[in-house]
Amino acid sequence: MWRLLAAGVGAIALVACAPALPSLPATTAPLAPSATGDSALTRSDDQGTVSVAVTPLNLDPTSVTLDFSVDLSTHTVDLSWDLASQATLSTDTGLQVAGASWPVGSGHHVEGTLSFPAHTADGRALLEGARTLTLTLRDTDVAERTFVWDLAR
Fold it and tell me: Beta 109-117 vs 51-58: how paired, if at all?
C-alpha cells in the first residue's frame, strides 16, 4: 500500500515539476501591428509555377515604411520581377499604397524585402483604424496573388 502511495506521489511531483510546454500561436490569431518576422504570420501562394511566401517584418505605424520578407521559388521561370511596381498594400478602410522598393534579383530562387510607404500620398497613416491588411501582387506568372492579415487592436 505504501509503495503504491509513494509511486502516486512521485508521479504527481514529476508532473508538477515538469517545465511547461511552450504555447503555440493559433493560426487564426490576429496580427498585432508591432508583431514582425514571425513564421506564423507567413502567407503562401502556390498558384502557377512560382511559390511565393510573404512575412511581415515591420508593421509599426510610426515607421516610414511597412516591410515584408518575400521568398520566390520556381524551377521553370526567371524571377527578375520588379515587385515594387507590381505590388499594392491596402486596408479595409479603403486606403492603398504602391510598392516603394524591391531588390530585383534573378534566377529560380529570389528573396528580399518589399517595402511600402506607411502613409498615403496625402499623408494619411495606412494602418490607422485598419482591421485587415492586404498585399496584392499583379502580373507575375499568374494574374493576381493576394496575401491577407487580420490586424489586432
Answer: unpaired
